[in-house]
């Protein structure tokens, strides 16, 4: 992925309304060009528009394919999941508090156990550091 691809994906992510509006403008331009082409071949206004829409296909499908090409869905889905998680945590503060306390205790206990184990197993290695480290016998 080069810099221009990254720029386009970030633009699609943060300026979604503008990018969608630009996409709609571009699709309208292509339909208008096809209508003009159909009129030049002899079709009247309504029939030229109908033929252009038939030739172009379902607009919603084309729009979705263009959005898929941006490849920003993964980030959008992660952001949507984070917003949902935040709303759920706000709705159930008791569960949120218990979950956060459990995570904090688990991470703290794990860090303490591995630190003590590291100091016990490798006392010679820990003395190579320039700072003082506690010794356990």
Descriptive notes:
This protein has 137 residues and is mostly helical. Helices cover 82% and strands 0% of the residues. Helix 1 packs across helix 2 and helix 2 packs across helix 4. It is elongated, with a radius of gyration of 30 Å. The two termini are 54 Å apart. The model has no long low-confidence stretch (mean pLDDT 82).
Using DSSP, what is the number of strands? 0
| Average pLDDT rating | 82
Task: Label the structural class.
Answer: mainly alpha
> Can you count the helices?
7
Q: Cα distance, first to last residue?
A: 54 Å
Strand coverage percent: under 5%
Low-confidence stretches: none
Shape: elongated
The sequence of SSEs as H and E is HHHHHHH
The biggest beta sheet is recorded as: none
Rg estimate, integer Å: 30 Å
Helix content: over 70%
């Amino acid at each position: 992925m080069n810099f221009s691809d990254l720029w386009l994906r970030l633009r699609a992510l943060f300026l979604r309304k503008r990018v969608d509006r630009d996409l709609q403008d571009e699709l309208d331009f292509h339909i208008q060009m096809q209508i003009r082409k159909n009129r030049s071949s002899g079709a009247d206004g309504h029939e030229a528009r109908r033929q252009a829409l038939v030739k172009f296909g379902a607009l919603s499908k084309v729009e979705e394919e263009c959005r898929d090409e941006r490849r920003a869905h993964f980030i959008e889905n992660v952001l949507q999941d984070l917003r949902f998680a935040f709303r759920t945590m706000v709705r159930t503060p008791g569960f949120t508090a218990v979950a956060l306390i459990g995570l904090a205790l688990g991470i703290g206990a794990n860090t303490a156990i591995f630190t003590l184990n590291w100091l016990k197993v490798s006392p010679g290695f820990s003395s190579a550091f320039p700072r003082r480290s506690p010794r356990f016998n």
